[in-house]
Amino acid sequence: MIRIDSLSHAYPGQHSKALNDLSLELRAGSITGVIGPNGSGKTTLLKTIGGRISPDSGTILLEGEAATREDLVAHCLYAGDDRDLQSTTAKNALRYARLRPTWDETAFARLIDRFALSLKGSLGRRSLGQRSAFTSCLALAAGAPITLLDEPFANLDVPTRLALAEEIIAVSAQSDGERTILISSHLVSELESLIERVVVLDRGRILSAMPAEELRSAVLALVGDPQAIRELLRAEAEVQILEERPLGRLAELRITGHSRALVDAARARGIEIQPLSFQDAFVSLISKEK
């Protein structure tokens, strides 16, 4: 179990905090996705958990014990678009990765074969997609109990993204609950079938954290006469209107905080209920913050 209590961090010269009193629990053995717009704090969160950044305040606990930066580096592995890798060779990066006691040489050999990656030459001369795939291969083979994948699908073509998702699921399944994986991505649709839980970030704060399958049902689209919809919602104190979109004489209102009784009442009044995709639900959730 990883618990994050009241984590805050601000970069020098920035008026707003990259992380703002953020608290979160990650269940051991889970695959969790972190999604949010650019600048929401995704990379800062992963780097802080990985010991790359020291927070201004707050605590990270591993199995109930406050973790030092050394603890985080030992137990967690951050893998992202690391600029240090651009100035080294694949063999040097591999030599460093092999220092981890949990390193799996067989797994790494299989991964680079699947993704057709070479160990020859400088990583800086490779395409962004090749460098991203190589970084993910190192991270998955490293066997760190807490693996932090920052935008692993960026710059990958569709077949490679699907293959990487398969490998992440396989690694998690083979670990028998011993490995926790946290993935950030702006490719929201890529995460839907991969993650068990989703954390939605915006401006350094958590907007919501829930099982991934609940994100779609957390936001509902009501389509009908706008006045009729608003009259229906007037008595619903828990309901938040996230967006309103005109559709000629009708309107689509996207809401959250709704109950089953509200859904039934809407249908009884001839108001259409429309399901949303995983990505559309996410977009609506962050729209209320703008």
UniProtKB/TrEMBL annotation:
Q: Where is the ABC transporter domain?
A: 2-228
Q: Which PROSITE patterns match?
A: ABC_TRANSPORTER_2 (PS50893)
Q: Which SMART domains match?
A: AAA (SM00382)
GO MF, one example:
ATP hydrolysis activity
Which UniProt keywords are present, listed alphabetically? ATP-binding, Nucleotide-binding, Transport
Mind telling me which residue stretches traverse the membrane in this protein?
none
Q: Does the keyword Nucleotide-binding apply?
A: yes
Nucleotide-binding keyword on record: yes
- Put simply, this protein is called ABC-2 type transport system ATP-binding protein
